[in-house]
Amino acid sequence: MAARKPIVGGNWKCNPEKLSDLDGLIENINKCDVSKCDVYVCPSPLHVTYCVDKVTNGAAVCPQNCNFKGCGAYTGEMSVEQMKDLKIEWCLIGHSERREYFSESDELLATKLKYILDAGMKCVFCIGEKLPEREKGLEATMAVCITQLEQVKGMLDPEKVVIAYEPVWAIGTGVTATAEQAQETHAEIRKWIAANVSEECAAGIRIQYGGSANAKNAPELSACPDIDGFLVGGASLKPEFVEIVAAISAAK
Q1: pLDDT band at 164 (very low <50, low <70, confident <90, very high)
Q2: Rg value, the chain, Cα
Q3: Catalytic residue among 95, 129, 188, 240
Q4: What is the bridge-based pairing of β-strands 161-165 and 122-127?
Q5: Which end of the chain has the smaller Cβ count within 10 Å, N or C?
């Protein structure tokens, strides 16, 4: 099987506050070399349309969420049909902030993933444990990840789905999982997929690391064989995002 192409995403979350700040952030995305690494950016919902035509280097615009059932009476939601009309091909779901603050369940996320894939789009599907589980060790960490993957395992097409493993305790805290912790968990996720989906799926599916990834730690993390990229939060709002893309492009 061909080597997995690295993939790096920038999640701007609910930023920036001002529309006038977007051009500088988009310029940063456009500076990324996408020849050896797939790149996507997740603007806030209000800013998606503005960004679509301005990202010009081959990076993808990837909304941070979608609803579960088309257009219609779903106040406050975005449908994948609306995204497709804007020529958007990717959508991110399952981020820990959606799970935590908006009570998105594994069942709902399985419904959303099927909806995205049935529409012919691709998905970044987020999973990850909180600090109490991590403190109990790898087995407890994997128990959370397995629960989050169990209902979508039949949909893990490596051509269409990217898994973003994000240890919740490392998101936005400045605390990063060590390269050893990250590699160990990524390897275990891949091992579980091999046993519960297929060896082919496990070998082909890309697993990103998300959790205070930055230009400083990207080279070491990129050297890990089972880390295929990054879902970058805070650092995606800074010029160093270009360096993160360059680091994994060089390593892989």
Answers
A1: very high
A2: 17
A3: 95
A4: parallel
A5: N
8 Å CB contact between 60 and 40: yes
- Taking the alpha carbons of 130, 131, 136, 142 in that order, is the dihedral positive or negative? positive
- Determine contact, residues 126/172, Cβ cutoff 8 Å: no
For the full predicted model, state whether its pTM sits above 0.90. yes
Q: Is 95 a catalytic residue?
A: yes
- For residue 229, pLDDT beyond 70: yes
pLDDT average, residue stretch 47-75: 97
Distance (Å, rounded) from C-alpha 98 to C-alpha 168? 12
ω into 43 cis (within 30 of 0): no
Q: Is 47 a catalytic residue?
A: no
pLDDT tier for residue 174 given thresholds of 50, 70 and 90: confident
Q: Residues 78-103: pLDDT tens digits?
A: 999 999 999 999 999 999 999 999 99
Residue of 166, 186, 188, 240 marked active site: 166
Confidence of residue 248 (pLDDT cuts 50, 70, 90): very high
Q: Which residue type occupies 213?
A: A
Instruction: Tell me the CA end-to-end span of the chain in Å, nearest whole number.
Output: 15
Q: Can you tell me the distance from the alpha carbon of 25 to that of 109, in angstroms, rounded to the nearest whole number?
A: 29
Burial class (CB within 10 angstroms; exposed 0-12, middle 13-18, buried 19+) of 180: exposed
SS3 category, 91: strand
